[in-house]
Specification:
Layout: E1 3-5, H1 20-28, E2 34-39, H2 42-56, E3 63-64, H3 69-74, H4 77-90, E4 95-100, H5 102-107, H6 111-121, E5 130-134, H7 143-158, E6 167-174, H8 181-192, E7 197-200, H9 227-231, E8 236-242, H10 247-257, E9 261-264, H11 270-284, H12 290-310, E10 314-318, H13 321-333, E11 337-343, E12 358-361, H14 364-370, E13 376-379, H15 384-390, E14 394-396, H16 414-431, H17 438-441, H18 449-467
Parallel strand pairs: 1-12, 2-3, 2-4, 4-5, 6-7, 6-8, 8-9, 10-11, 10-13, 11-12, 13-14
Helix pairs in contact: 1-7, 7-10, 12-16
């Protein structure tokens, strides 16, 4: 059984996690005509905005109530009211998603009461705009929890309750935060290929896919799930949740509307995708289309081609719990070994199923300490310095990825996404100068850990020298 080791440091060294309000804002960005609103200081919003812009390379409609010193002491209800009315007047959004921050939460404000009063007093002015509140203090949870809370809040506030007439071919899909724009787009295509009609909440593939509106500036999101689509979720015949953190939103939808749900903890890997395809066949009453069967055959061939490069490799991963499970099961399924694992929280039940001996709740400093000797470092862009110091190749996943283009368009799920992951990782291993070495292939000669470390450090020096524009043999380090 995996051991979950609690965080023991009083300060984070190169933080791994992103804040809970950022995760909630991320989910609101998957709704058409939406504006996420941070209830807190300008600094709280600016930090999240920088990460969003660097990751997606797009303009992000993120706003703030801009609480100052007076509001921090006397209360921020006035700031919240003014921000909502200003947004309604200037942007005319269909949805305003309020994400509370640590500043307002620590003060202990009555957000629910304040918002109810604002809606009552300005009912006519706010007509046509839904305002949803999500309590997401920075000091608790991370991006995963914030995303799930925002989806739950939207279902509770917008979805029409009670038993409804079901549409037999309509499927509600609640994707986890770790699915990329390309993942969700590919997921929709897969479901539609069975003749089904998916309603995806949130749908970042429509709002963060890099398209630009024609000849106009749009102050809100311009794509994603419609508010009307959220309101009519109760007419779906089936709900499919992806990721353990989406269990709660699926349960709330079932409680409010009676729509049954099925939870997939991952859609990466042959067995997981086979189960998903079987479910779609059962719902639609139709066999898997020829295109889907062909992609499965391509994955089988990729498994045969790629497993030679994975066998015995040591992997160090740092990520949120559900993405951690997705990647760890992928690597172990290919024959690799998970030797170092770091995550953001100990509360997720999925951690008990991660194929590792121990999981450290911590930061990227912990990953650097535990990952020495690994063959591959897997985390987001903030881990690049650790990879360079250790001389270990790095695979960028999750959020944020700001030093590479197109991360949001990388497939990681279903048959095609799993195939692409195999090729990506195998190519990283093949491009590593240390893999394989002649002594590693010689059964009568073993290379010591010291030899390996010295070679990795030497390679790290060469990498730093090259990045500085110096010849490798003249590296000042």
């Amino acid at each position: 059984m995996v051991r979950i080791l609690p965080q023991s440091k009083s300060a984070a060294i190169n933080p791994l996690k992103s804040s809970q309000p950022l995760g909630a804002a991320f989910a609101f960005l998957g709704v058409d005509g939406a504006v996420p609103l941070f209830h807190g200081s300008q600094g709280c919003t600016s930090f999240a905005l920088v990460l969003f812009v660097r990751h997606f390379k797009e303009a992000i409609p993120l706003q703030t109530t801009a609480m100052d010193e007076v509001a921090t002491i006397l209360g921020g209800a006035d700031h919240l009211e003014q921000a909502i009315l200003n947004l309604k007047t200037r942007a005319k959004p269909r949805l305003i998603g309020i994400c509370t921050t640590a500043l307002a939460e620590t003060r202990g404000e009555d957000f629910v009461g304040d918002l109810a009063k604002i809606k009552l007093e300005h009912a006519e002015e706010l007509a046509g705009t839904v305002v949803v509140l999500t309590k997401t203090p920075d000091f608790d949870g991370a991006i995963e929890e914030g995303w799930a809370k925002a989806v739950t809040a939207m279902i509770e506030a917008i979805t029409q309750t009670g038993e409804r007439a079901r549409q037999s071919r309509k499927v509600a899909i609640l994707p986890g935060w770790n699915l990329t724009v390309a993942d969700i787009e590919h997921l929709r295509e897969m479901v539609e290929s069975f003749g089904l009609m998916p309603v995806i909440l949130p749908d970042v593939s429509g709002s963060l896919d890099g398209t630009v509106p024609d000849d106009r500036w749009v102050p809100t999101t311009y794509g994603g799930t419609s508010v009307e689509g959220i309101r009519e979720l109760g007419t779906a015949a089936q709900c499919i949740a992806i990721g353990e953190h989406m269990r709660r939103p699926a349960e709330v939808l079932q409680t409010l509307t009676g729509v049954p749900y099925v939870l997939f903890q991952s859609l990466t890997g042959l067995n997981a995708v086979d189960r998903f395809v079987s479910l779609l066949s059962a719902i639609s009453g139709a066999p898997a289309p020829t295109k889907v069967r062909r992609r499965r055959a391509q994955l089988q061939d990729a498994l045969l081609d790629g497993h030679f490069h994975f066998g015995g490799k040591k992997i160090a991963i740092a990520s949120e719990p559900d993405q951690l499970y997705q990647l760890a099961t992928f690597f172990t399924g290919m024959g690799a070994e998970i030797t170092a694992v770091v995550t953001t929280t100990s509360t997720s039940k999925i951690l008990e199923k991660v194929p590792a001996e121990a999981i450290q709740v911590g930061d990227l400093g912990d990953l650097e300490s535990l990952g020495d000797g690994a063959d591959l470092l897997v985390t987001h862009s903030h881990g690049r310095q650790a990879a360079a110091r250790l001389g270990i190749p790095m695979m960028r996943v999750g959020f944020p990825v700001f030093d590479r283009l197109g991360s949001q368009h990388k497939l990681t799920i279903l048959y095609q996404g799993t195939r692409d992951l195999i090729f990506e990782v195998a190519n990283i291993f093949q491009s590593d100068p240390l893999a394989p070495s002649p002594w590693a292939l010689d059964p009568f000669r073993s290379q010591t850990d010291t030899d390996k470390k010295s070679q990795r450090l030497a390679r790290g020096d060469r990498t730093q020298a090259t990045s500085a524009g110096l010849p490798a043999d003249k590296n000042p380090l």
